[in-house]
Every structure is written in C-alpha cells, then in structure tokens.
Amino acid sequence: MDVLLRLQELGLELPKVPPIVGIYKPVKQVGNLLYVSGQGPTVDGIPVITGKIGAERTIAEGQEAARICTLNSLSILQDFLGDLNRIKSVVKTLGFVASAPHFNYQPKVIDGASHLLVQIFGEAGQGARSAVGVSELPFNISVEIEFLIEI
Amino acid sequence: MDVLLRLQELGLELPKVPPIVGIYKPVKQVGNLLYVSGQGPTVDGIPVITGKIGAERTIAEGQEAARICTLNSLSILQDFLGDLNRIKSVVKTLGFVASAPHFNYQPKVIDGASHLLVQIFGEAGQGARSAVGVSELPFNISVEIEFLIEI
Amino acid sequence: MDVLLRLQELGLELPKVPPIVGIYKPVKQVGNLLYVSGQGPTVDGIPVITGKIGAERTIAEGQEAARICTLNSLSILQDFLGDLNRIKSVVKTLGFVASAPHFNYQPKVIDGASHLLVQIFGEAGQGARSAVGVSELPFNISVEIEFLIEI
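Above: the input entities. Below: the structure tokens describing the complete assembly.
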C-alpha cells in the first residue's frame, strides 16, 4: 500500500523537513542502506516535547515524542528518496530517552516510534532496536532516535 | 571448531531465548549482516543483575552482566540462524553501562562480553567496539549491549 | 587532494596510533565499510581533555576534544588502510558528550569533529550523525566518538 495514503488513513501528515542543526547530512546512503541522523520531537526545528521522562514528562508524552521523531525522519526520507514507497524495511532503531533518576521504561517510550512504523509499513517496519536512558539530550528534547533504513 | 561444543568446553550453555519486551525483532538481517537488538542481563526475561556499576554493583558483577548479555544474544542468533557456526565474525559491539557518578571503567565492564566472544570465536570474535556510561537502563539492568554480526 | 597534504595545509599532523584499552579491534572491515571503535581525546593513550562539558569544560574545549577524537580515528585508519586517500566518505558519526546537568549543546560539541572532517574531505566528510549527552565516559574523557567510514 502507498505510504502517503497509509499516513492519511492514520490521520497523519508528514511535517516539514526539520532544519539542520550542525554539520551533518540528514540522510547518508551506502548501497541499499540509508543512515538517518538522530531526530528529536521538533516542529519546524523548535523542540515541542522537552524535559526528562519520569519527572517533567510522562511515558505517554515520551511516546508522543518518539512518534514525532519518527515523522520527522520519514519527512527527511521523503525529501531524500522522493517516494517513501522505496523503503523496503526498517533495519535498526537506536532510541535515547532523557531519563529522570530511576526511570526505567525506555522500551515503552520507544515503542511510540516502533508502533507507528508497524502501522505504516507492517512487519517490514519492525527491525532490531536498542533503547537506553541518557542524562541530557540536545536542546533538552525528551527523546532522540536514529534509524537505519533498507531500500 | 563447533560453537556449541566450544560453549560446552567452556562450561557454558545457551540460555532460553529472551522474551521480547517491546515492538522490535530480536535480529534483523540485511545481506550478510545481522543487527541484534540490545540485550540485558536477564534470565527468562527477568533481570538478574541490576543497579549502577560503581555503587550497587562491582566491576566483576558488571562483567558477569556483560557475559549474560552476550549469551542471550547468542541464544537469539542460534534461534535465528539454526546454526551458530554460520557466524563469520563479530563486527561491532556497542555497550551501555549503567554508571554511578564518577565510575569510569566502562571498557573493563564490556570486556566481560568481548572476552567471552574471543574464547568462543577466536580472533573473529573481536570487532570494533564502543563503551559508554549511561544514567538509566531499561528495568534497571546494569548493562545493555547490541551486537552487529557478519555471517 | 591528498589527505596527508591537506592535513599539513591545515597545520595538523596525525597523532600516534592510540593504544588499545580493552578487547576489541580499532577498525573492523566488512565489505567497503570500516567500523571504527569509539575514540576519546587522548594523546599516547593518556586522556588530555576530561570532565563534564557545561561544568568543568567549556563548549570550545569540548570541540577540541572532538577534534582529537577525530584525529585519533584518522590515525587508526591510516594504520589500517596504509593510505587515507582510500576513504570515500564518512557515513555516520555517533558522538557521546559527557554532559553536566542541563548542558544541552551536544551538537555544537560534535561539530568540532564534523568541521574538521569537512575541512579534510570536503562534502564527502559529511555523513549522518547523532549526538547525545551521557553521564560518564571511560577514564572521565569529555567526548567519545565512533565513526563509520566508506572506502
């Protein structure tokens, strides 16, 4: 099924491509692999979900942050590929969760990204994954996710 | 030499395949590369070594945690491949160590994984590696490791 | 342009190959990809920039740390390849910044590495990137960076 149609069905639309905040490429291709730079929960480059999960933010807010990271990554991929239907599978997800002391549900937070990818791509949206807690993220965002994509 | 025989020689046996705790695949293959999802020191999915290294846990306990992460990953690979002898080399290890303030021996902890892989696979068990300290890991596990494997 | 000449032009020279501190290979090759082990700001294996960015260290010191990580990685690659001109591009940078509480400029710090790579390799030096803050790094180094390189 067409990815943009599927997003529409889910009531979602691709956000604007996030601005670049540093010296890097949003996507780098080697062979059939696309390395996507770590994305955060930003809209037009402005962080919209900030603060530590488990203190300032709930798990549900963390999941929403993970969803926005994912939509930003898809927007970048659409810009790079011209057609999201060229995505064959999600290979790997590395999720960093800004965690308050004693917050230990990082996988639940990153499930916000993984659930969306499965809704869009079906089984192909499910890849390998690691989820860890970190003390600080850029611009105080609550979640940062990097994806490895197969085309 | 046969990997399972080698494990036996070392007095080790593969644990049961860890249950999945989130929306991801334990292993994702692209070409001859296997991306293994981050594993922790769990038995039957229950964390057995928890708490920060350098406070609640010693370096030796951290090394044992890293060994268990590795055995869980091998169990997942056995389940995926059917035959661990198909492993050609360990390409990359990314080790996250739940670290107490001022604990700075993350490489020593992750050596617990690397030493075991060299015991099993010889020089092929030694790949590139990064080891870092993080503030919180899922379910309060002391170590999380993700492997990239070549078949 | 020749990479060593370019380094000379920039007033830089390759440091000695850093000693190995643990059980790993400095570089692991699979096909045309080189996975470089995480490097720190060390000279002859001795950490030269330690402590948390945002407290004991400034952003500028963090950027200098990131530059040294990069030069150490290039030294390792020169040792492995025999000729840095074989590098086709920088695929991916994963930067870990030892961060004081409330320090949120990790991308600025890792730009120290990325800027140098662009100075040396031009556009090919710019790849995908993630930058995160962590609570502790090995030997109290301020920055650890791992690179994925295409030859």
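Note for the figure: The longest strand of chain B covers residues 89-98.
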